[in-house]
Amino acid sequence: MASHSDTLVVFFGATAGANGGKLGSDERELILLVWQIVDLHENKVGQLQRTLVQPDSADLSEQCKEETGLTAEELCKAEPLESVLQQFHQSVSAELKSLGRSSYTLCVDGPLLIRQVLHPEASKKNLVLPECFYTFVDLKKEFHKCCPNAGPVNDLTLTSMLDYVCIPAAVEQEAGLREVKNTVLLILHLLVEPYNHKFSTFETVNYKFESGACSKTEAVDSETVIRARGLPWQSSDQDIARFFKGLNIAKGGVALCLNAQGRRNGEALVRFINSEHRDMALDRHKHHMGNRYIEVYKATGEEFLKIAGGTSNEVAQFLSKENQVIIRMRGLPFTATPQDVLGFLGPDCPVTDGMEGLLFVKYPDGRPTGDAFVLFACEEYAQNALKKHKQILGKRYIELFRSTAAEVQQVLNRYMSTPLISTLPPPPPMVSMPVLATPPFITTGSTRDCIRLRGLPYIAAIEDILEFMGEHTIDIRPHGVHMVFNQQGRPSGDAFIQMKSADRAFMVAQKCHKKMMKDRYVEVFQCSTEEMSFVLMGGTLNRSGLSPPPCKLPCLSPPTYAAFSATPAMLPAEAALYQPPLLATPRTPQAPAHNPAPALAYYSPQLYMNMNMSYTTYYPSPPVSPSTVSYFAAPPGSVAAAVAAQQAPSILPPQPGALVRMQGLPYNAGVKDILSFFQGYQYAPEDYSSLVGVSDQGRSLIQPKEWLCL
């Protein structure tokens, strides 16, 4: 069999739109093909062939009419592209047989005809091109090898090349024939002295796109990357490769972009083998994929690596199996096992290597996300799997989509890099208020000496949590259990526990994670005091991280209240006070004048300190579980009585008073009603007028000067 260099077929084509250097940029169809065989071994030429091609739309541009001289009436009588390609293949094969040759290579004046016109049009019309259209010789590059001083390859034209070697151009009136004859003259001139050129460099067109993994350490040239925008959300990497058919995409070079919810956003980054193919891809700006036009822009290698790059060995091992079809499953039950997934897919779509062909996506702490990727050995199995879209597994319907290696990397990167609690913003400055306090219990910090319990039964109490902790209760700080309640005052199923050290917190998180409590497994995670305080202030946790508490939302502004001055207050030893949920920075307490009695903390969900915050806070924890930055501590009556029996009575030193804010007052409530509400607490009768103020929202403020518990 003769080598490819023994026979060339000079190939020329024209479209119904732009031609020359803009060939294929306007997505117009082929209307003319011309070819001629050149025997490189014998320096002979075959018969010149010319045929018209019937386009789907006979609307010709003015440039096309001027350059080709064709009319719509002529094209309507022509054969469609599929028939013309069959005619071409039969004609060339018969002529080669007469010359004693069996194979040939196309020769074109630049790659645009093959890469930008023929392959894209055949792909849109679902035509299977003969093998000869996947290999060709670029005459411009071959001429540049012989005559490097003729100028850059991109600037060469057929006319300039003929002028450089001093060959007169052929005189031919009919379009297409003229270009082919001039190309044949140039080829024959390069075959003889002084060039004696051998056509040995062959351009290739990839048959199909190869998926693969990309490492973040891989060097990616920014001159090879584009961003495609406006893609159908269900499009896969193969669909994108089909849109760029004729251009060679690097292995694993299609990265579908995902939005914040992990769903495709209609964009993709595509990496080509070189800048030449990237430039041709940019010429497909606003070409169509189905009924949608696709925008194509330049991108950078850094952007590509951010989306497609990965470092996970598990993903690399999963994607090491080549020529596999990847399907993404979304919405899996969190309890789903590999056996459940294999049973759901069934025997008509076997997974490659069984459970080895499954990759479950998990959070950094090991919790399932409900996503998984599955490998199939062939397209048939993948199609069978896609037919199960929205079928039921357990009590959930499962979504199935085509996926890509880059999407596997991106999804894993997104979930594995998501922290349990996102980085917290610096707290805003708080207004300092005088309060009654013992040494502050919760101090903000980044040390991960706390644990978070999630999934607690709603009926769980402090005693249940202590029983759940078991032997680790000895490592809990005093009053270190903090249950989180929602805005309705109901348990949220979450709790925070302060441990004596970060090592103890880590050990508890490891040993108690997913341990059972009242027929429910409870998840246990290590966290910091700063993160705990932020949640206890009203922030919420979700999959996207941490949402700020209402007090940090810019849409809320504090109301303006009448100003009152604080006055000294006395706190008797037997007083049982309720702690308002004061959300502020820790305060330095005043040193007591005696040994304080054992204290327990108490809270009231009805009293609010005026901290210039206008929002509905979360209810605090039960009495033994302070949830705020500082808290009131006072012994209950029984404890105080026991202490008083052992110690001499003493009076606490004067403490500064506090401004109490009352919300939800009846509109007709007066001073007497408010004083009646505080019956049992002592204040100066002469200061009635200064005790009560009304805000501009109609709410009352009262400042008790002394507190006594009856």
TrEMBL record:
<protein>
    <submittedName>
        <fullName>Epithelial splicing regulatory protein 2</fullName>
    </submittedName>
</protein>
<comment type="similarity">
    <text>Belongs to the ESRP family.</text>
</comment>
<keyword id="KW-0508">mRNA splicing</keyword>
<keyword id="KW-0694">RNA-binding</keyword>
<dbReference type="GO" id="GO:0005634">
    <property type="term" value="C:nucleus"/>
</dbReference>
<keyword id="KW-0507">mRNA processing</keyword>
<comment type="function">
    <text>mRNA splicing factor that regulates the formation of epithelial cell-specific isoforms. Specifically regulates the expression of FGFR2-IIIb, an epithelial cell-specific isoform of fgfr2. Acts by directly binding specific sequences in mRNAs. Binds the GU-rich sequence motifs in the ISE/ISS-3, a cis-element regulatory region present in the mRNA of fgfr2.</text>
</comment>
<dbReference type="InterPro" id="IPR050666">
    <property type="entry name" value="ESRP"/>
</dbReference>
<keyword id="KW-0539">Nucleus</keyword>
<dbReference type="GO" id="GO:0003723">
    <property type="term" value="F:RNA binding"/>
</dbReference>
<dbReference type="InterPro" id="IPR012337">
    <property type="entry name" value="RNaseH-like_sf"/>
</dbReference>
<dbReference type="GO" id="GO:0008380">
    <property type="term" value="P:RNA splicing"/>
</dbReference>
<feature type="domain" description="RRM">
    <location>
        <begin position="450"/>
        <end position="525"/>
    </location>
</feature>
<keyword id="KW-0677">Repeat</keyword>
<feature type="domain" description="RRM">
    <location>
        <begin position="225"/>
        <end position="297"/>
    </location>
</feature>
<dbReference type="GO" id="GO:1904888">
    <property type="term" value="P:cranial skeletal system development"/>
</dbReference>
<dbReference type="InterPro" id="IPR035979">
    <property type="entry name" value="RBD_domain_sf"/>
</dbReference>
<dbReference type="GO" id="GO:0006397">
    <property type="term" value="P:mRNA processing"/>
</dbReference>
<dbReference type="InterPro" id="IPR012677">
    <property type="entry name" value="Nucleotide-bd_a/b_plait_sf"/>
</dbReference>
<feature type="domain" description="RRM">
    <location>
        <begin position="326"/>
        <end position="401"/>
    </location>
</feature>
<dbReference type="InterPro" id="IPR000504">
    <property type="entry name" value="RRM_dom"/>
</dbReference>
<dbReference type="InterPro" id="IPR036397">
    <property type="entry name" value="RNaseH_sf"/>
</dbReference>
